[in-house]
Each structure stands twice: as C-alpha cells, then as structure tokens.
Amino acid sequence: MDKLRITGGQRLSGEITVSGAKNAALPILCASLLSADAVTLANVPSLRDIDTTLKLLGQLGVRADRGRNTVTLQADQISSLEAPYELVKTMRASILVLGPLLARFGEARVSLPGGCAIGQRPVDQHIKGLEAMGAEIQIEHGFVIAKASRLKGAIIRTDMVTVTGTENLMMAAALADGETVIENAAREPEIIDLAELLIAMGANISGHGTDRIVIQGVERLHGAEHTIMPDRIETGTFLCAVAATGGDLMLRNTSHHTLGATLDKLREAGLHIEVGDDWIRGTMQGRPKATSFRTSEYPGFPTDMQAQLMALNTLADGTAFIVETIFENRFMHVQELIRLGAQIDIDGNTAVVTGVERLLGARVMATDLRASASLVIAGLAAEGSTEIERIYHLDRGYDRMESKLQAVGAQIERISKDNA
User: Fold this and answer.
1) In the annotation, is 116 catalytic?
2) Averaged pLDDT score across all residues of the chain
3) Residue from 42, 116, 139, 155 carrying the catalytic annotation
C-alpha cells in the first residue's frame, strides 16, 4: 500500500495543468448506457474512481477504448443489467447506472451502496423520483430492483438537494415518455456538464444550472463527442496549497466561473488571485488570515473544499469558525491535523480553528478523499517530514497529485510500504 512522504517548507512556483472533473466524468461515463452509438469523451482524468466506473460498465457489456485522457464507449451489446456489490461498495457513484439502465432497457438491478465514511448518502430520492415516473421498485437482498415498460414524464420534487439524484433522474427522463420536471434540482456545474452531453446526444433539456430542470423525453439518443469540464475541486486544492506555503502558482485548463465561493474565501485569506478565460494565478506573501465559512449546496461554499480550507486555517492569523452542513462525519481529518500541531475544537457541526505559527511533520492517516488532500496541504507547510498513509483515498479523486506538486517545487514522493 502506497503512502506519501513530504518534506515541508517549500514555496510553490510554476504551472500546473488541472485535470478533468471527477464529479462530472462519473455520471457522463454512465450516460453512455443511454445509447447504442459511440460516445467519445476527452479530458477524462486518470483516477481510481474512473477505473472502477469503466470496470462496472465493462461488466454490463460496454466496450471502452481508452487513450490518453480520452475514452470511447459503446453500449450496443449490453449483456447484464446488474451492478454487483463488489464494485458498488468501492464507489457510491455506481448508483448512477440505475437511471440509464431502467430508461433504456426497462429494468435494472443495482446493489445498494452501503456505508460511507463521511456520512449518510441515502438513495431514497433516486427511488422516489423513478417511482414518480412509473417504475416499480423493490429492495431485496441488498439490491435496488427496478422495472418499467417505459418511464413516463412526471413532476418530481426532491425532499433535499441531491447531486447524484438529479443526475440519475435527468438521465432517466431523457428517454421517458413525455415531460419531466425536476424541482429542487442541484445546480452544480457538473450537472450542467452532464446536461450538455445529453443534449449533444439528442436529449431535450432546459433549465440545467437552475433549481428547475425540464426534460422532454425522446425515443432514442445517439452518439456524441464531449470534453469533460475542468475539476474545480482540484483547482481549489492547489490554490489552498500555495496559500499555505507561499509562492506563485499558475493553474491552466481551469475556469474561475465555477469557483466563485472558493475564490472569495481564498482572497479573504490573503491569496492574490488573477483570472483569465482558462487560467487562474494565485500568489501568496506572508501568513494567511483566518477565514470562517459555512458549507452549502452550489453556489455556496462546497463541502468538497472544507477540509482543504481548514488546513489553510490551521496556519492562519486568528480564529476561524467552520460549519459543515452537508455531511455529518466530515471532520475526521481534524484529529490528523491535530497530530501536526493544529489547534481545532469541535462543537457539533462546527469546527473552531485557532491558527498556529507553525505545524510540525508527523505520521498521519487519510480517512477519505478530501481529508487526504487537506493532509497534503498541511504537510507541504509543516516543518520536517510528514508521512500520509492510506493515500488510495487520494488516488480516487486526484490525477497524479504528487507529480504535479513536484513540478512546482514541492518535496513530495510516493513510496511503497515495502520500501519505507
């Protein structure tokens, strides 16, 4: 099992090219199930979650021709309508095959995802929406078993804002009979990216990017080509890293339009930010300022950036109050940051972070994807050596992070435990 070893205290300087967005790529890969024609995708990141999704699609019968950052998928010979627990348990986004399979083939058998380290992510809103469209759904032996001769358009009002729920229902509605309206829909940029692919495949969708999405179902969808949007969370993570360590970092192949709340908070922390059409430059001099925030659905501050900005706040001048409203267990990185010398107190869903002048390297353990990124940021800023174990979490969502950081001056290396 690999781990990272970081010798902290190095300023970052240079350029990083941001990879395609994991959270856009996963539903878009699953959307290939909606057509028998080829779907060609560019800017696909090289991630563990992408590998898992392609393995799942392959088990269903989808053929994948993978190049460097490209994938061509063809679902004309589907041989199975079952997503087994062995694959679903490693990645909750596997539930995104449910809507496409049911819409195109009239049935699906998808394992329930099971537990999640950062909190509950129930699929009840997915099921509620599909049932409103006429599906008959049973939960038996740990599987969601869904059937429908053809889904019917419906008005769906979700009880909560759910990104994967919105994506699943939008894909299902694309092939339904009649008009579907999703109210209280998620507004994330990744929803827009999925909608743009579906429209390129022949879907009739409007309102994506708002809380009311309207889909006019069509008989069939055809193939298309699409470029995955840049990863806004990877962009924000690297900006937090330069804010914590100091330096001058140019990020290419990214978009400031999807990062409003994150950029606002980083500017508040003292990071000087310049933006262009496809680049963001972050320059940091001196100690960061404490920055309080509250996570919320887009366009609010993203929960996927909470741990990274907390890491920055551990070194800031002052005290920051961080309120997590999305996932109830998303403070598991706190104890690991404390091992590095951070001063953090937890009161319910609020973390009180009192900045210290320095962190000291130590052995720490990643508990989830974004927690691992926060430990990298803290390790880059800490004095001495930091070792981060269980970095398979990091590989789920960051494409060659250590290589990108090495190129801009970080002393970071991936090592095997056998050679530690």
Assistant:
1) yes
2) 95
3) 116
